[in-house]
């Protein structure tokens, strides 16, 4: 079947906004994005950056697995406040060169350990890999098979978005005040 005319276009979580999913090919970015959005879309191989409404961005794993695409990854996340980085629960390796996710100062990186339902999952090691790469807790343990962690991660991202929009207003005031200070 092509297309999905029966899926309502109405968004169940309009406040879920402003983040990009980043991680290796097959780590579960698309499945987790669609689970958080409660979208009925089928998980297909992500061939290009997918922009859902409100700056919810699903990136192709090639952005991570191919160094030639690091520039494209950085350009894609430039305007997004929050990066959600997925570390599969059965992987001990970090898929990016150190520091790449922290190129932009002030961007928040949220650590997710995905696919916790796998029989060879080792969530403790996966959390350690995140910590070793400067991603601070809390970490979200998720599985789109069992639904573990999907609601918690969604709620956390919504909270961040709300606090960012308040901060945005404060930052504008601060910026104005700062300009004033520099004008004497
Ligand atoms: N067991 C298990 N499989 C998953 C989970 N999340 C995704 N998958 C499967 O892993 C494969 C890759 O998932 P996908 O979301 O396309 O990964 P992406 O390349 O990071 O977007 C698909 O076959 C998914 O069904 C999970 O939490 N548990
Ligand atoms: Mg994908």
From TrEMBL:
One of its GO terms (biological process) is biogenic amine metabolic process. GO terms for molecular function: ATP binding. InterPro entries: EutP_PduV (IPR012381), P-loop_NTPase (IPR027417). This is Ethanolamine utilization protein EutP. The gene is eutP.
């Amino acid at each position: 079947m092509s297309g999905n005319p029966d899926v309502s276009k109405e968004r169940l979580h309009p406040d879920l906004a402003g983040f990009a999913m980043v991680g290796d090919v097959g780590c579960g970015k698309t499945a987790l994005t669609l689970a958080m959005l409660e979208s009925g879309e089928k998980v297909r191989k992500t061939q290009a950056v997918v922009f859902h409404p409100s700056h919810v961005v699903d990136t192709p794993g090639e952005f991570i697995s191919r160094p030639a695409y690091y520039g494209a990854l950085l350009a894609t996340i430039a305007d997004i406040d929050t990066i959600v980085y997925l570390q599969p629960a059965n992987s001990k390796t970090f898929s990016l060169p150190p520091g790449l996710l922290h190129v932009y100062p002030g961007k928040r990186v949220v650590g997710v350990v995905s696919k916790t339902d796998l029989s060879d999952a080792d969530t403790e090691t996966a959390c350690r890999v995140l910590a070793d790469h400067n991603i601070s807790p809390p970490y979200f343990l998720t599985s789109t098979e069992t639904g573990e962690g999907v609601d918690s991660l969604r709620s956390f991202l919504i909270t961040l978005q709300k606090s960012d929009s308040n901060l945005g207003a404060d930052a504008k005031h601060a910026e104005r005040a700062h300009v004033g200070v520099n004008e004497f």
